[in-house]
Specification:
The protein has three domains: about 15-290, Up-down Bundle (Rhopdopsin 7-helix transmembrane proteins), CATH 1.20.1070; about 300-365, no CATH class; about 370-430, no CATH class. The chain is about 70% helix and about 5% strand. Helix 3 packs parallel to helix 12, helix 4 runs antiparallel to helix 6 (about 140-160) and helix 16 packs antiparallel against helix 17 (about 390-405). It is built from 17 helices and two strands. With about 450 residues, it is an all-alpha fold.
Length: about 450
Amino acid sequence: MMASSSDSPRAPAPSATRLLALRVGSAVISAFALALYAIGLPRNTRLAYVVCRAPAACTSVQLTPEGAHALTSAGISVPGFVTAGMIVNLGASLVWFVVAAILFWRRSDLPIALLLAVQLVTQGATSPVQPLIDLNTAWAVPANGLLALNSILLFYVFALFPNGRFVPHWLGWLGLVWAALNVATLAPGLLAPIAGAFVPFICMMACVIGAQAYRYWRVSGPTERQQAKWVVLGIAATTGSLAVLALPTLFVPALGASDSLYQLTFGLGKPVIQLFGPIALTFALLRYRLYDIDVLINRALVYGLLTGTLAAIYFGAVVAAQAVAQAITGVRSLPPIAVVASTLLIAALFTPLRRRIQAGIDRRFYRRKYDAARTLADFGATLRTETDLAALTGHLIIAVEETMRPARVSLWLRESERHDAAPARQGTLERDDAFHSL
C-alpha cells in the first residue's frame, strides 16, 4: 500500500554510511541479546524443574511447594506442566526473533524498522535471563543491561512510530530522561530505586500515548492512520485478553494467589498473548494489507458488543427465571426448563441483534460507508422501477459519485452492435453535481 501525498513528512533518509552503521549496530545489539539468551536458557530450564523449598532463594521461574501441590491435586504432572511452560516460552521467543528477522530482511532501509527489530530481539531474549539476575551470577550485570536496553528501545519505538520523527519534538528530550533513569538501574545509588519504580513508567507511557493521539489527529496522513490502527488493535488485543483473564480474580480472590492453579495456567498462556503487539507493529511497518484493519475493528466492535449484550440478557433471564420459580414453588434451585428457555432466547436474538448492532456501529463510526450502502440500496430500488434510460443513467452516475467520490464521472452507452449504429451517448457528472444532458 503506497503512502498518500497527504502523509506527514518522514525523517530524512539516512545516507549509505549511516544506514550501514545502523545495520551493524542493530546486528551487534541483537547478537548480544541472543548470546545472553543462549547462556540463560539452560540455567532457566534446570531451575524450572526444581521445586523451590527455601522462599528466600527462589527464582521467578520455580514452582513453590504450594504451586506444585495445586498441580498434583488437579491431576497435573509437575514435570509435564514445566515442560509445557518451557515449550510455550521457547515458541514465543522464536516468534519474536522470526518477526524481527522479517523486518530486518524486508525493511532494513528504514531506521524505525531497524529499531523495532532490535527491540523485538531484546524482548524475546529477556525471558530466560531473569535467573541470571535472581542468582546474582557473573552475568547479572549484562542481564540487567539487557532489561534496561529493552525498556529504552520500547519507549523509542512508540515515540518514533510510524515515520521516525518525534511528534511533538519535546518527546526526544523525554526519551533522554527515560534512558538516563534506566541506565541508573545498572549501578546501585540514589536514582536506582526511582528508575525501577512503577510511577515513572506509567508517566512515561502516558506521555507517549498522548503524543501518539496528537500525532494521529493533527499530523498523520491516511496511511499513517491505518498503521496506527494496527498498533492500537495489537495493544487492545493484548491488554483486553489479559484483563479478561484477570477479571475472575476480582470476584474470587483465592484465584489471585500466586500458587493457585488458575494463576499457574494463566502464566502459561501469557507469553502467547503478548505476541499480539509485535505482530501488529510488523504488519503496520511492512504496510501489508493496511486497510484490512477497518474490517477487523468493525468485526471486533460488533461481536464484542454482541457477546456482552447476549451474556447480560442470558444472565438476566436466568436470574429472573430463578426468582419466579422461587416465588411460585418456594424452591431456590433453577428448573432445567428455565435454562433451556434462556438458551433458546439467546439463539433467537443472535441474528437480529447482530444486524442492529452492525447498523448502529456503521452509522456511528463508519458514516461514509453507511451512507454509501444506503445510496446503493436506493439505486437498487430505483433500478427495479425506472424504465426511462436517460433518467436511469442520471441515477447511476449520481450513485457512483456519492459512493466513490471521484473528481469526474462519465458514462458511455452503445446504442447497437451494428456498424451503422448512432454514436455512443455520454453522460458526465462534475463535482459541482451538474449533470450534462445526454
